[in-house]
Amino acid sequence: MVRCDRTWLGIDLGTQSVRAVAVDDAGALRAGASRPLESRRTVGADGSARHEQDPGAWCRAVDDVLAEVVAAVDPGSVGGLAVDGTSGTVVLVDDDGTPRSAGVMYDDARGSAHVERVREAGAAVWERLGYRVGATWALPTVLALRDEQPGGRVRHQTDVITAHLVGRDVPTDTSTALKTGYDVLDGRWPAAVLADLGLDVDALPDVVRPGQALGGVGADVAAATGLRPGTPVLAGMTDGCAAQLGAGAVRPGDWNAVLGTTLVLKGVTEHLLHDPTGTVYCHRGPQAGRWLPGGASSTGAAILAELVDPALFEEHTDALLADPPVDLPVVYPLSGTGERFPFAAPDARGFWLDGDRRRPLGELAGAVGERSAFAALAEGVAFVERLCVDHLAALGADTGGRRTITGGATRNRWWNQRRADVLSTALERPDRAEPAVGMALLARAAVDADGGEPDLVAAAAAMVHTAEVVEPRADPALGERYAAFRAALRERGWITEDTA
């Protein structure tokens, strides 16, 4: 029998808000709260995008949401808490932990000028780990930040919060440290590489596995929030990994697809995946021998809102459910320029096929009507999702486990069905999947392990529940259109026969 007398807290530091939840052992939501965060976006002298937040605001928001959540539960029932944050967000702090810089967010590109140097200095390490360091990764960002403000210790967004909760400096986790260059295979910072870049390892935090105990809630935070002093604080993960846990994708072969503005696919393997195209990289899971590979496509639901009136989405959906389309144009539904997964093509642009002729996406609705355009764009996103799965399988990943779907787009019933049909796979939609829930699940698994290895499978079985299963339907026409979709991408040189 699943216990329900304990409560687990998860905190999610997002771009626009901080969210906290209290979840019991059976996965029931006991309380939730959120507070907004403000960003400062500018352009640097070099033309790079800048995105900053106030680290003090993170701490104040965390105290506020915890106070609201804890007021709704018995503080004595709280067994532990864990925190996730945006991947690659960093800040410089003084020796006592006081921030000396703004929080530089995950999509800040001030480190662009350092990227090639970082790639060259650590080429052998990055190759062994399967990384391709990006322009907004934390390591080049740190180099640029220290050019602006020499000195200081490097900490991540989650590190600021966990230190605040415990009342002293604490280690970061392997997931959060990945984009700062941490060697997840050797379990250490690559000191020689960092020295070549002028960065002392002593300026970086110690690193532990997600779920490891960091300490207990300190007296100041206990007084501000109502938590018991000493409530266990466990090392967390990045927000993407946290969302994967919240969806219950924790066994080898399981995959979770998050479809919102963009499409993100993350799963579990028993070995590190090496992707020569650099579109997939792997986090190390909380359990030994488990890896969490994934990638993020630039395609997603955003393109639908750009080309079809969002006020008509529900009307189009009802009509498509009542009268499914027999034929649709083949569409590569990319918003803007550049694709990053399942292939890397910085100059890629979306298109649709009018017979054998490629035409711009802006001409789609006028040529076929808004309803058919809506359906073709949605189907095109499903084709990208299938290509992502094909790419992962070609890299040696097991893709035969549970497939869960989360994100705002899962509210569309027709789209869920079309994705299942395209993928020829049953899709499970969890009743509640969000990063904060994933952190509550991790806290429970870690505390139950009592210093051992967290059993995420057992925790997910108790806490994650399926709201709906969408079974695939056979449709030979989908296979034909998918083949045409792959052929069009090959003609552009974006994928090869092996990739497809």
UniProtKB/TrEMBL annotation:
Domain Carbohydrate kinase FGGY N-terminal: residue ranges: 8-246
Sequence ranges assigned to domain Carbohydrate kinase FGGY C-terminal in this UniProt record: 289-446
UniProt-recorded Gene Ontology molecular function terms: kinase activity
Classification via CDD domains: ASKHA_NBD_FGGY_SePSK_AtXK1-like (cd07783)
Enzyme Commission number(s): 2.7.1.-
Keyword Transferase belongs to the record: yes
InterPro entries from the UniProt entry: ATPase_NBD, Carb_kinase_FGGY, FGGY_C, FGGY_Carb_Kinase, FGGY_N
Keywords: Kinase, Transferase
The family this protein is said to belong to: Belongs to the FGGY kinase family.
Protein name as it appears in the record: FGGY-family carbohydrate kinase
Phylogenetic lineage: Bacteria, Bacillati, Actinomycetota, Actinomycetes, Pseudonocardiales
